[in-house]
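Z., the sequence and structure:
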Amino acid sequence: MEWKTKIRRIISGCYAGCVVTVFFFFLYLSANIASHAVHNQMNTSFGEFKEYKMVHTEDENTPLGVKDVYTMRISDVSEGGSSLAFYSIHQNVEAYIEEECVFTYRPEETNAFGRTPGSNWNTVLINAADAGKEVQVVLAPVYESSRNIIPEFYVGSKYGIWLHIIKEDLLPLLLSLAAIIMGLVFIFFTVSIYHTAEVDKSLFMLGMFSLNIGLWKITDITSMSLIFPFSIPLANLPFLCLMLVVVPFILYVKELYSTRDSIIWYIPCAASMMISLLELGLQIKGIADLRETLWMTHASMVFLALVFVFMSVRELRTVGWNKKLQTLLGCGCACILGMAVDIVVYYVSNGTSMMVLGMVGFLTYIIVLGVRSVKETRRLMAIGIQARKYEEMAYHDQLTGILNRTAYAEYIEQKDFSPENSIVVMFDLNNLKKCNDTLGHEKGDRYIRCSAELIEKVFGDIGKCYRMGGDEFCVLLKGVSLEECGKRVQRLKVEVDRCNQSNPKEYPIQIACGYKLYDSEVDYDLGDTLRRADKMMYHEKFAMKQKAVPLS
């Protein structure tokens, strides 16, 4: 195996290991992270929101020693009550009504690891009896990047607020679902054709890329916390999915370049996997959370973009500016632009905003190159099917469907073939010429097909059956004793008699047979063995003709 193939397999195997590691890490995260969320009121009805004021204070009991206190009064509350909703981003949450704590959400102190409560929609229920009372919302950031994030407060019907949130997220939600569905389609399509040797399997990697991009985006949408409320594992899932996008991107796109075997492609793959394992290790050890080491993942993505640009310039110099390269560069630039926009928006907004443009760029890359790869795969499959048909015609007898003389010659000429312990069995169909002359070639063809079926029925499970031409057939046995071969010959005679008795109107079948075991002392090669078996067969053929009743 060439070193390039070894590297490709090592990278693919390591990436599979990373996927499994991330999956079990997520399961461990789900099992060991706990959170504390308390509602002390019942939701009955809804009201309206009033103005608020914000005070930034210090508090040594909070993760960073600071907190933001938002003070407001809810008036004109109906008899049923109202809901105060706001979105927190990696912030511990407390809500008070007249200094009475009515809502808290934070990680439990018994967490195995991880300080973040995630990003969540929080709903504080305001009863009619609390109308006009002072309401305080306290947000304590757990990361430096979560400082000074001011939430938007909504007051009214909880379900009306939810509907508004979902409408705001509808487009990115649909785009993310499209990426997930396309990823699964590409993966299942590749798995379904896995054993088709003619086609390239890199479409599987495009599917993995699309799936991880979709999961990253959909779990990063604010409305997901309405579907999965107070889920800390969900808050970490975008970081885990983002770790897994670099390797499949590289392993797919490199197959579209003439420099696909260059070791340069594998450098960002190795770097990305090492960075991912480092991030997981820092998280597990409690040194830094995935949110705090996200810059490492972003750095690996930037490195990926640089390698892509470098290899594209190299491709341009090698093959010139053609239509294929135009498509690759257009889609690749759309993907990289989307990635760049997402990274810039993330750092500018401290992770509070999501750009649809980034998802559009990713989908452009996935759809255009995905459709192109599927078409190419189907074209190669069609070529492969046609090639197999030609191979079938080249190595199989068209009348009987069993292997032919060409297949026999190619098999015994293989480098790893040894004649030792080989038995050659030769057959000849008696009176075939007479059948053709008196009843016509249609009856003769039926005679040949029935004889081939009987030989295949008796010997097919222990050897290879060949039609050598005309009325001659051959069976090659490996590792079968002469005693067993003799039993099979006797069984063939029984099958021939049974066939003749059940079809009295058909021309009677007679099959002469001879067989010999390869003997290195008398046989130079298997051809000598075949000639000895042929000689034995003709002795039996002569004996059968001497005993045969004249055939009409």
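The first helix runs from residue 3 to 32. Confidence is low (pLDDT under 50) at residues 31-48.

Let me know what you think.
H.
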